Amino acid sequence: MGRSNFRVNYHIAKPMNEMRVDRMIENYPSQYSAPKYMTFMWQMIKSGWEVKLHVVKDSKYVFTSKGDLIFKTRFSSHKPSYHRQKKNDCDFYVGISHTQVHTTDQIIKMIKEIEHENRNQSSDSA
Description:
Blueprint: E1 14-16, H1 18-27, H2 36-46, E2 50-56, E3 59-66, E4 69-75, H3 82-86, E5 92-96, E6 101-102, H4 104-125
Parallel strand pairs: 4-5
Antiparallel strand pairs: 1-2, 2-3, 3-4, 5-6
C-alpha cells in the first residue's frame, strides 16, 4: 500500500493534537463510550503520528501522516458509496464496507506494519 495517493480533502481537514482529542473524549456524553474515530486519533497521536480530521455528515475521515506516509481512514456507521470505494477513495475503512469489515485495532495494526516495512526499505536503500 505504501504512500497514499488519496488526499481528497486533506487540505481542509483540521489538525488534531493530544489536548484537543482528550477534550473531545472528555466532553462526549459519559453514558456512552467514546467513538472509535476519537480513540483511533488518540492512539495514533500517542504513537507519534500527525492526525487531521474531516467530518462529512455522519462520516469521519481521519488522515494520519508520518514522514512520507499518509493514510486516509473512513469511520462511519453506513457503507461508503460503492463507486468511491471502487476508486480507492480511502486507504482504510473502519466498520462495514463493500468488501470487508475492519475494526479500529486491525487498522492500527495494518498502519504500523506498513510503517515498519517502509522503515526497513528506507534503511536497506541507505
